[in-house]
Recover the amino acids of this structure.
C-alpha cells in the first residue's frame, strides 16, 4: 500500500504551514538581518521535512511523474528515475481487457498496438498514475509495478538475476560443495542452496545416495521432471556388450558435455556412482568450460573467434541396449563449440569427441585452424581441471552446458557402475524462483 506522495505543491504547503507555526510578532528591536535569517531557517526546515517525508516512503513510492513527447518521466522514493516509453506502457496496460490477472498473460494483441500512441492526460493517484491514451483507452499503473519494471540499472539487473544468477568461474583450486541426498529430498532450504550453487558454480557433490539405479531420477522428480533422452530416463554407464555409445565401454573418456548431439542439450547431469572400480582407473576429471573459454578469449583471441563462429556437427546413431531405450535413433545437431549471447557472454560449451561428426561444413583451408583452436581449448580445460575418484554413494551434479567431465580408463572386467540422468535448466531455475518466493528470499 502506498501513502500520500509529496510533490512540489505539497512542499509549498509544508512551507506555508511551518511559516504560520513559527513566525512570531516582531519586537521593535527586530532587524532586517534577523528577519532574513528567520526565513532562511524556515525554508531549510521545510526542505528537511519534505526530505524526511520522502525518505520514509517505500523505495517504490512515486514522487513525481512528468510526461514528455515519448514517455512518462517518473521519480521514485529512493531517488531513482526512469522514462517509461508510451508504447511500452500501452502494450502493458494492466486493465482486465488487456491483461488476464488469473492467467498472468497479455490479452492485448500486437496488431491493435499503435507504436505512435501517446498520452492525452496523465493524473497521479495515491497508488500510482492514471493515463488516458490517444487511441481512446485508459490505463492505471501502481507505483510498485512501475518501479519493478523501470528502465533503471538496478531494476534491469534485478530482472537479469531473476532470469539467471551470475556464474562464478573456477579452476584447479575448486572444491565442489557437498550435500546430503536425503536432506535434499526433505529440506527445501537445503534444496534451494543446491540450486543456487549449481547456478553460480556449476558443480556439487551429493553424498549418501541410495544404492538404486533410479536415485538420480528420484532426486530430479523432487525438483521438477527428468529430461528424457533416447537412452531413457537414466543410463547405466557400464561396459556393455554391443554398446551404442563409447561412454558405455571401459576406455578413457576425454572431457565432454553430454548429449551434444541434441539441439537442446541437457542442462544439469546427475552422475551417480553405484559401484566404483577397485584399483587403478575410473577416476573422474571435471573442468569449468566458462573459465577455459575466458582464458582462450583473453590469451588466444583468434582461436576464440574460430570456436565461436565455426559450426561443428555432433551425431549419435544406434539401437537400444535396454528395454527403456529408444529402439533405434539418429540424432544430429550443429553448433559452435562456444556459444555467445548478444552481450558477448559465454552461454554454452559443447565438446564431445565421441559424437563429434567427421563432417565439417568448412572450406578445406579453414580445417587446420579449427583443429588448432579445438586442441588449444582442450589443453586449457585440462590445465584447469580437478581430479578425484567417486565412491559408491557419491553423485556428481554438473552444469552440462558449462562444465565438462571425463574419466580414466579401467579394466574391462570391472563391475564399475555409474548412472546418469538429466534435468533441464528451465525446470531447475523455475524451482529456484518458486523456492525463493516461498522462503521469502527472492531478490
Amino acid at each position: 500500500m502506498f501513502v500520500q506522495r509529496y510533490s512540489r505543491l505539497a512542499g509549498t504547503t509544508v512551507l506555508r504551514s511551518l511559516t504560520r507555526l513559527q513566525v512570531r510578532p516582531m519586537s521593535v528591536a527586530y532587524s532586517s538581518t534577523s528577519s532574513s535569517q528567520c526565513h532562511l531557517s524556515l525554508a531549510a526546515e521545510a526542505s528537511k521535512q519534505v526530505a524526511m517525508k520522502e525518505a520514509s516512503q517505500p523505495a517504490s513510492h512515486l514522487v513525481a511523474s512528468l510526461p514528455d513527447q515519448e514517455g512518462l518521466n517518473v521519480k521514485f522514493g529512493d531517488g531513482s528515475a526512469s522514462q517509461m516509453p508510451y508504447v511500452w506502457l500501452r502494450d502493458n496496460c494492466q486493465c482486465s481487457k488487456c491483461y488476464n490477472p488469473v492467467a498472468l498473460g497479455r490479452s492485448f494483441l500486437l496488431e491493435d498496438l499503435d507504436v505512435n500512441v501517446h498520452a492525452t492526460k496523465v493524473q497521479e493517484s495515491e497508488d500510482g498514475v492514471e493515463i488516458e491514451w490517444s487511441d481512446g483507452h485508459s490505463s492505471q499503473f501502481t507505483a510498485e509495478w512501475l518501479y519493478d519494471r523501470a528502465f533503471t540499472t538496478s531494476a534491469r539487473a534485478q530482472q537479469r538475476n531473476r532470469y539467471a544468477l551470475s556464474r562464478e568461474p573456477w579452476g584447479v583450486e575448486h572444491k565442489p560443495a557437498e550435500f546430503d541426498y536425503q536432506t535434499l529430498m526433505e529440506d527445501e532450504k537445503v534444496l534451494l542452496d543446491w540450486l543456487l550453487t549449481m547456478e553460480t558454480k556449476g558443480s556439487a557433490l551429493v553424498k549418501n545416495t541410495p544404492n538404486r539405479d533410479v536415485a538420480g531420477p528420484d532426486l530430479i522428480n523432487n525438483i521438477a521432471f527428468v529430461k528424457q533422452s533416447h537412452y531413457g530416463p537414466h543410463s547405466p554407464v557400464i561396459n556393455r556388450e554391443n554398446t551404442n555409445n563409447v561412454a558405455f565401454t571401459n576406455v578413457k573418456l576425454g572431457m565432454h558435455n553430454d548429449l551434444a548431439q541434441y539441439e537442446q542439450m541437457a542442462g544439469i547431469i546427475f552422475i551417480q556412482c553405484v559401484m566404483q572400480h577397485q584399483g587403478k582407473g575410473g577416476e573422474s576429471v571435471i573442468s569449468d568450460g566458462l573459465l577455459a573459454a575466458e582464458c582462450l578469449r583473453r590469451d588466444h583471441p583468434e582461436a576464440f573467434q574460430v570456436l565461436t563462429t565455426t559450426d561443428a556437427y555432433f551425431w549419435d546413431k544406434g539401437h537400444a541396449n535396454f528395454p527403456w531405450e529408444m529402439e533405434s535413433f539418429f540424432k544430429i545437431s550443429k553448433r559452435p563449440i562456444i556459444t555467445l549471447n548478444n552481450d558477448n557472454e559465454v552461454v554454452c560449451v559443447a565438446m564431445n569427441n565421441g559424437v563429434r561428426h567427421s563432417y565439417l561444413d568448412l572450406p578445406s583451408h579453414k580445417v587446420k585452424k579449427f583443429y588448432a583452436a579445438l586442441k588449444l581449448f582442450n589443453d586449457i580445460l585440462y590445465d584447469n581441471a580437478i581430479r578425484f575418484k567417486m565412491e559408491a554413494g557419491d553423485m556428481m551434479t554438473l552444469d552440462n552446458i558449462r562444465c565438462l567431465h571425463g574419466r580414466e580408463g579401467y579394466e574391462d572386467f570391472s563391475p564399475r557402475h555409474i548412472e546418469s540422468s538429466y534435468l533441464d535448466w528451465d525446470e531447475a531455475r523455475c524451482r529456484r524462483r518458486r523456492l525463493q518466493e516461498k522462503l521469502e528470499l527472492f531478490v
In short: Residues 1-40 have pLDDT under 50 and may be disordered. The first strand starts at residue 62 and ends at 67. The chain has twelve helices and 22 strands.
